[in-house]
Amino acid sequence: MRFALLCAAAALVASPAMADELVAVNGADSIRLTDTPCSSQEVLKQLEPRLHKMMMDATAELQGQKFKACWLPDGDAAHLLYEDGDQGLVPLADFKAAKSA
Length: 101
Fold this sequence. Notes:
Elements: H1 2-13, E1 21-26, E2 29-37, H2 41-44, E3 56-62, E4 65-74, E5 77-82, E6 87-91, E7 96-97
Antiparallel strand pairs: 1-2, 1-7, 2-3, 3-4, 4-5, 5-6
């Protein structure tokens, strides 16, 4: 049942309304979520293959360092998995549409 809910949430979050990128900003720190499939082989190799299709690309800049990550919706939060194995949850309400350059 939880798997079905995650799939439904992923479809909802990855819908065209996402507008390609969402960003959460806290001071100089930021996290960007995309609706494109996860491309980080370092993240994907940490996961069971059945989860690969559910993961989407993300990037983060935290304390001046840039990180690649992948994410999927987890209830009302984005569950992020970073290349170094670190993980985090960020409320989806913290994300806004990224401004065009």
